[in-house]
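INFO batch 0412 | record 1 of 1 | parsing
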Amino acid sequence: MLNFSLKNLKSSKRTFVFAEAGNNHEGSLRIAKKIIIEAKKCGVDAVKFQTFVPNLYYSHDQKERLKKLKKFQLSYSSFKKLIDYGKKNGIAVFSTPFDNKSADFLNKYQKFFKISSGDNNFFSLIEQIITYNKPVIVSTGLSDYSLLKQVYDLFKKKWGYFTDNKFLVFLHCVSSYPTKLKDANLLKILSLKKKFKDVIIGYSDHVEGIEAAYIASIMGANIIEKHFTLDKKFSNFRDHKLSADPKQMKTLITKIKKFYEASGTGNFMIQNCEKENLVPTRRSLAASKPLNTNKKIIENDLIWVRPGNGIINKKEIIGKKIKKKMKFSESFNKSNLL
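INFO prediction complete | emitting tokens
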């Protein structure tokens, strides 16, 4: 199970991947459970859903939107079942609340929270979630620096400082569905890291495919949130198309793991795997032409050849005499010098 602590996020040499199931279950508890299992098979660290009361989410005159939301809505008891189902199957399951009532419900069962881009200025909800004293992830779509600083300052004011189990995460996000690759603005990940040094920085991806998410991991995103579906053609609901299917999600996680495997430590050193090639590929000093016995060696008598198992310091040779004849390109060593 995911250890969602500040220490773990900072010390782990990898990117954590969250499968954003959202409403891709379309109101079916059975499908939601299947999403959890398939996401677990892909190797994700957590699966996230969305919890809402439609009439506390959209105004009464948004009839089509409300009709769809009521169709997709899962009951609170269903979310409790999903969280328990995740625990039973060894994977963290949590949900984003879209209203204050849902936040209070979820607080009974989940250890951390996510606030959507659309609600990163919904301060009533944010202030309520802050009181739970749990880690909070905030997506940064639709925001400028001024708003994010306002959100950051609110957390610092209420909490004073961040602790291992009470901290803030910003996910760079572009609230366009789907986001074009040219609009992904992934350099903002680095800008967020620079501006908010004590905040964990990640990426919430709405670009089709897995390229942007993979690049974000290379750029240092601690968390990747990627929409996930069982089938991109599941229905005409928009989110399926921009989501990763199981094959793509598995590929993304494999690529991220390979990236970290290849990343190493960054230390300046000769690695153990190189040592067997150290002598064969280095050079040592050798005769630039046939040299006779008692020949006093000068600079022009020297060339550099492989392997590097002979003398490498010219000062140890120049001015010395040859003990016995040397062939062209024969390496110098102490046994052939007087």
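INFO post-check: The chain is about 35% helix and 15% strand.
INFO record closed
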